[in-house]
Amino acid sequence: MADIVGGGHRSTTLSATIAHLRDHGPDDWLIPHNIELPVRGDMYEVDLAVVMPHAVCIIDAKGTRGRVEVAGRRWYPSNRGYFYSPVPRHGLGAGRRLAAEARAHRH
């Protein structure tokens, strides 16, 4: 079972995602959620991350169901209007910072 770290408000979608990862993830996964990370003067908000021994996955939980087409920075869900990709908001710097903090938490 994965180790869950964090607090704060959880949407229904985020709660369901955390529960699934907790129940199905291996013991060596650390899953922090509701994270605010300062990176080079900017603040990044991360819904949750999965910190694994050799990788970090940053997840922006969306309540969107069904197929999502991607064209450039726009995401087009089948059941609603488009929205802009959350990927540029998080950036590689946020992932590196999060990985360093997660490793410190484990020791």
How does this structure look, described?
The mean pLDDT is 82. The longest helix is centred in the last third of the chain and has 20 residues, at 87-106. A hairpin with a 2-residue loop joins strand 5 (68-71) and strand 6 (74-77). With 107 residues, the protein is α+β, with helices and mostly antiparallel strands. The chain is globular and about 40 Å long. The strands form two sheets. The chain has a four-stranded mixed beta sheet. The chain contains two helices and seven strands. The two termini are 19 Å apart. Helix content is 31%, strand content 37%. It has one domain (3-106).
Secondary structure layout plus pairing:
Elements: E1 3-6, H1 12-24, E2 30-39, E3 42-52, E4 55-59, E5 68-71, E6 74-77, E7 83-84, H2 87-106
Parallel strand pairs: 1-2
Antiparallel strand pairs: 2-3, 3-4, 5-6, 6-7
